[in-house]
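Example record

One chain of 339 residues, shown exactly as stored in the release files.
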Amino acid sequence: MRLTRTARRAAALSALVAATLVATAACSGDDGAGGGTADDATVEVNFGYIPDFNGTSLLAVAEDQGLWEKHGVEVKTSSFTNGPLQIQALGTGDLDFGYIGPGAFWLPASGQAKIVAMNSLGQADRVVAQPGIDSIQDLAGKKVAIPEGTSGDMILTLALEAAGMTKDDVEIVPMEPAAIVAALSSGKVDGAGLWYPALATVKKQVPDLVELAKNSDFKDTVAFPTAFVAGNDVVAKEQDKVDRVLGALRDAIAYRADHLDETIQLTADFNDLPVEDVKADAANVQVLSLDELDGYTQDGTFDTWLSGMEDYFVQAGQLPEAVEPSEFYTGDLFVGAGK
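Predicted structure tokens for this chain:
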């Protein structure tokens, strides 16, 4: 029988307490071996996430499979609606680690955080419009909602550029994702840059919603990777914490690649969502194996993708200038973690 999330946490906590008692007894013995080292202690981590497959699946696996405990990490997770909010929380110290989609990559590129692990390739972003609007050009002068600084913002900018337009040609309405769902469903905006599974909710109210652009339309020029990020101070001053967390994530990545159906169920449980909704969400994700992530890090593929994304962000006015990807992607830490 599958344990509930609460039951799994209780079991993990019991195991952690038992392990701590054993370690304490060993350290207090009279065998002259000396006390435990700092590396034996459990580290506490505040981890942010977005409640979709990309943003949650590894956390769900790590919790269910006991990977945090394996690597000596005690995690407190917090749900966010987007990546930029997590970057802010990293800057204030409220989070140690978080998750971002491609639209927020300009923030670590501008020095506000470090990318510590690449994750997957997103295929869930869309530019959508109300029935009767059949092209990007038809959005001219109309209200288009976006969560600023996200992949929804990014795909709209790319779609407008491909159509020979800019954001000045439409009326941009900045909104949080939940507000966009409501605005599209009620017809208060004409279009939006958003993603699944949020758009699946909209389609229940607007079944004839028109999809005008998708990630794959731009596959020859721009990749849409997702990633895990850490605060600058965490990377600079808490190397052991980073190594432990990345070790757990690496184990979770390996599990996810080999157990996709189980991971979908775990993600649904973690987020209290119907498994069919999560399955549909995962269908818009290109899962990368651990070998692929290591290989793309070492052969320069990720550097190429990140440089291309920087060029986009500079052109979009979000990034003053491009920098070397190694300044914000700590790929060496990821490849070497837990070894």
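Notes: The CA atoms of residues 43 and 241 lie 7 Å apart.
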